[in-house]
Each structure stands twice: as structure tokens, then as C-alpha cells.
Automatic annotation (TrEMBL):
Swiss-Prot/TrEMBL keywords: Cytoplasm
Species for this entry: Asarcornis scutulata
Protein name as catalogued: NISCH protein
Nischarin C-terminal PH domain sequence ranges: 241-347
Record's subcellular location: Cytoplasm
GO biological processes: Golgi organization; lysosome localization; regulation of protein localization
Main location: cytoplasm
A molecular-function term among this protein's GO annotations: kinesin binding
Statement: the UniProt record of this protein carries the keyword Cytoplasm: yes
Span of domain PLEKHM2 PH: 115-178
Gene coding for it: Nisch_1
Cellular compartments per GO CC: endosome membrane
Length: 348
């Protein structure tokens, strides 16, 4: 340890997504290569001497206690824990986080000294991993509200690579094996006989950590919700969700020093007749076992919706991935798609 292959892999993965801004401290980390990266991990992050760094990933993360603040993080997976090296702007984003971190941060006068917070989730405390629709994100759940983190990879490849590495390091944990199930077959493991309803597919790892994947019913529920917004429940059978992707909506900010763009996280859903943007709650659902009341907002909240037949043209940027798309719609004064949102509480 570390092998040449691992060094090369970690160096390749150590790239900040070009569309996301990070602080100077994380810029420093992203500039490290090979052996320097491993030494940085052991000198500044690792909690015990004999743990090995196995995987590195850059991702936006959300915490259960601060569901509205998405922050950039360098996620480091070792044989003992998952470390989230956070952007230092996270501390000042919301007053509630100061309680969450339970620490006072003094602003250092020395400009060359950069401070980052590191959130640690020990593998022994890990209870379950929920994978989001189409592997666009995943949620890691520990034993309390402080130990629930969602990684918004927005990329099925990154999600899959992390899952593979996580399962591999969990296999190294010495935990007492679960008792054998009594008279249970493969189907009864993830199907409830009482309701006849198929639950989400669960894979129970040998370390007793649950890996929970969405099933077809989640897509069905999403299709029903979309049809409801279209006021078209009659054609629910023929409604197909063609694309579900976590994206950013670009809001152009004028009047600033440079005309900058702010990125608003959105869930884009494309059907055969409409294009929707939703604000989605990626952290609160499904409800953790200790939750005493449902979340304050729904899982999906409609932000915008347009008919494909009103689409005039699509402009494509020439930059590398991630690609910027501009959808130009005809300016229809009475857009009947949105009427039911304002009028449905007046009755028929």
C-alpha cells in the first residue's frame, strides 16, 4: 500500500467539477497528485495510523440538519471511515450549522492559511445506503440525524464506482454475522406479503449495512405526480418519463462586477409532451427510523413546466462536459399548463 494502480486512480479522480466553485483550501487539495495526496491524507485527515485510502470523489453534499445548503466536498473513503472535506464557506452559510458543528472558528489573519472542516462518518456507524433514481445521488445513513449525508454525484458512473469501493471496504469489517432468516425465500426478503406491495429492493451486505435501491413503483409514483401537474390523470397509462436527471438551472446575475451566473439545483424530468423542473428533497426521503414527523416539504415541488410543442429551439454550448443547454419557448400568454396550479382550490 499504496499500489501504483491506486495512486494513478486517485490522481485521476482528484478533479474538481469545472462548473462548481470551491474555496482556496479545497483548490489546494485538488492540486495534489499521487504520493503527495496519500501523505496529505495520513498527515491531516486519517484518524488511525493503519487505515488505507481506497477511493476519492468530488461531489456536492447535503446534510440532514441543513437540507437547503448544498456544499462542495472532497469525499475520501478509507478502510475505517468516510471523510467529507468541506468547503469552508459552509460554516458561515447558516446559523444552525454552528450548532451542528459545535465549534467556534476564528478567522485567521494569515491569508496563506486555509481552514477546512472535515466531517467523519465511521464505517462501524454506517447503517444503510439509499441509492437515488437512476444512480444520480445516494444517501448515507448512520445512527442519528447528525450522521445522514447525501452525495449529489449527478453521475451514475461516480455513484457506481463509490458503491463498489464502499462494499469492498465494508467486507473488511469484523462484525458479528446476522442470524440466518427463518423460512424466508428470496422474494419474501424484499416483498411484503401483508400488503402485496413490493418494497424497495434491499441488499443486506455481509457487514449488516443495507443497500436500498429504488424499484419500478418509484417511477410510477413520479409519473402520477407529473400527470397530476399536467392535469392529465386520464392518460396516465400512456405517460412515459423519458429522462430524469439532476441538473442546474443557470440564473444570469446582471449588474455584478462580472455578469456572473448562479447555479440552482433542479431535477429535470422529460415526458413525451412536457419538460418539467422540480425542486426535489434529496435528503429527507425515505424517512429515517428516528424521524418523529414528516419533513416540512414534499419530495417534489414543481418549479417550472413547459409543453414540448411550445419549444422553439434548443441552443447548445460548445464547452466540454457538463454541457449547457438553453431551451427557448414561444412566449404564450395564456399557458394552459400552469392554470390548474392556481385554480384547483376554487373547485371545478
Amino acid at each position: 500500500y499504496p499500489s501504483e494502480f491506486l495512486m494513478q486512480k486517485i490522481t485521476e479522480d482528484n478533479q474538481v467539477p469545472i462548473h462548481l466553485h470551491v474555496s482556496a483550501s479545497l483548490q489546494y487539495v485538488s492540486g495534489l497528485k499521487g504520493n503527495a495526496l496519500v501523505e496529505f491524507f495520513h498527515g491531516n485527515i486519517a484518524e488511525v495510523e493503519n487505515e488505507e485510502l481506497r477511493h476519492l470523489m468530488w461531489s456536492s453534499v447535503l446534510f440532514y440538519k441543513t437540507p437547503n445548503v448544498e456544499v462542495m466536498a472532497c469525499v475520501l473513503l478509507s478502510t475505517k471511515a468516510i471523510y467529507f472535506l468541506l468547503d469552508d464557506s459552509f460554516i458561515h452559510a447558516d446559523e444552525h450549522q454552528l450548532d451542528f458543528w459545535n465549534e467556534e472558528h476564528s478567522d485567521c489573519e494569515n491569508d496563506s492559511f486555509h481552514l477546512s472542516c472535515c466531517f467523519v462518518l465511521k464505517l462501524n456507524d454506517l447503517q444503510s445506503v439509499n441509492v437515488g433514481l437512476f444512480d444520480q445521488y445516494f444517501r448515507i445513513t448512520g445512527h442519528s440525524a447528525d450522521h445522514i449525508v447525501t452525495c449529489l454525484t449527478r453521475d451514475s458512473y461516480n455513484t457506481h464506482a463509490f458503491m463498489q469501493q464502499l462494499m469492498a471496504v465494508l467486507s473488511l469489517l469484523a462484525r458479528t454475522p446476522s442470524p440466518e432468516p427463518i423460512d424466508k425465500d428470496f422474494y419474501s426478503e424484499f416483498g411484503s406479503k401483508n400488503t402485496g406491495k413490493m418494497e424497495n429492493y434491499e441488499l443486506i451486505h455481509s457487514s449488516r449495512v443495507k443497500f436500498i435501491y429504488p424499484n419500478e413503483e418509484e417511477i410510477g409514483d413520479l409519473a402520477f405526480l407529473v400527470a397530476e401537474k399536467m392535469d392529465d390523470l386520464t392518460n396516465l397509462q400512456s405517460l412515459n418519463i423519458l429522462l430524469y436527471v439532476l441538473a442546474f438551472q443557470v440564473n444570469h446575475v446582471e449588474g455584478s462586477a462580472q455578469n456572473t451566473s448562479s447555479l440552482q439545483p433542479k431535477t429535470l424530468i422529460l415526458t413525451s409532451s412536457d419538460l418539467f423542473l422540480f425542486d426535489e428533497d434529496y435528503i429527507s426521503y425515505p424517512l429515517p427510523e428516528f424521524a418523529k414527523e414528516p419533513p416540512k416539504r414534499d419530495k417534489y415541488q414543481l418549479a417550472d413546466g413547459r409543453r414540448i410543442r411550445d419549444l422553439d429551439r434548443v441552443l447548445m454550448g460548445y464547452q466540454t462536459y457538463p454541457q449547457a443547454l438553453t431551451f427557448v419557448f414561444d412566449d404564450v400568454q395564456n399557458q394552459d399548463l400552469m392554470q390548474n396550479l392556481t385554480l384547483d382550490h376554487f373547485g371545478d
